Amino acid sequence: MNKNALQAEELVSLKSIYGSQWKENDIVKNLYSINIAQDVELYITLNSSYPLEGPPSYDLLAPNLTKNVKYIITCALDEIYFDNIGGPVLFQSIERIKDIVHKEGNNKGKKDKKNNGKKKTDNNLKITGKQSNVKYNIIHGETIQDRKSIFQGHVCVVNSEEDVKNVIKLLLQNKKISQAKHNISAYRITKQNGVLLQDCDDDGEYLADGRLMQLLQKLNVMNVVVIVTRWYGGIQLGNDRFKHINNAARLALQTGGFI
């Protein structure tokens, strides 16, 4: 069976499963769409080599979903593809997106009910350093939760090792953050003379700091310090904790516009 036949067979199956929800664009070739939920529409573009070679191209029209949820969806789609290279992935991908969006809707409803009447807090925390009289704009990323553990990244512009110490000190003035199990940090600074300063601290989360540093190096982010807070939920996550730490850092860097 050639690749076009495999693709055609999958499209027939999707039409059978989803009926009128599955739509083929009349103008753009190989473009399909399906309504995932209210205000969430998934667009799928298939190239001629799919599924034997190359993943589908996804576009998600979902103005009310947070960056964190969209990032989770992207990671889920990548995971499905790499677990099924050469095979059909559209049904699994659609159902996984539905699960994530449905879960987010339930969580949002609970949060709205819980926070009804409460003032929404800003995601940016501006603190004046006591020693240097420099204002540090510490930007907080959205949280990632897994088996009762919670991860959150924080990022701030720094130009010296003293700045790094001040930012961490100021961040730990937040009682909730200071009481967390770990606050892993990494920074990279380029001095005016071209000298590169970089260091990291695992704060008891063995090997996590080195992986965080590798992320900053890979992204080529300079003159920032990233701190990832982990509130331990009592259940060991194994190597998943490293993935969540780096993803939390990435979310903070994205929120701050550094990547």
Topology:
Layout: H1 3-18, E1 22-24, E2 31-37, E3 40-45, E4 57-61, H2 67-83, H3 90-114, E5 124-128, E6 135-140, E7 144-146, E8 149-157, H4 161-171, H5 175-178, E9 182-190, E10 196-201, H6 208-219, E11 224-231, H7 240-255
Antiparallel strand pairs: 1-2, 2-3, 3-4, 5-6, 6-8, 7-8, 8-11, 9-10, 9-11
Radius of gyration: 22 Å
How much beta, percentage-wise?
25-35%
- Series of H and E elements: HEEEEHHEEEEHHEEHEH
Tell me, rounded to a whole number, the average pLDDT. 84
Share of helical residues:
25-40%
Name given to the CATH architecture of the largest domain:
2-Layer Sandwich
Q: Helical stretch count?
A: 7
Indicate the low-confidence ranges by residue numbers.
Answer: 117-133
CATH fold name of the largest domain: Ribosomal Protein S5, domain 2
Number of domains: 2
Q: Tell me how many strands there are.
A: 11
Distance between the termini: 43 Å
Please identify which CATH superfamily of the largest domain we are dealing with. Answer: Impact, N-terminal domain
- Principal-axes shape call: elongated
Quickly give the structural class: alpha+beta
Would you state the CATH class of the largest domain?
Alpha Beta
Major beta sheet summary: 7 strands, antiparallel
Quaternary state of this entry equals: single chain
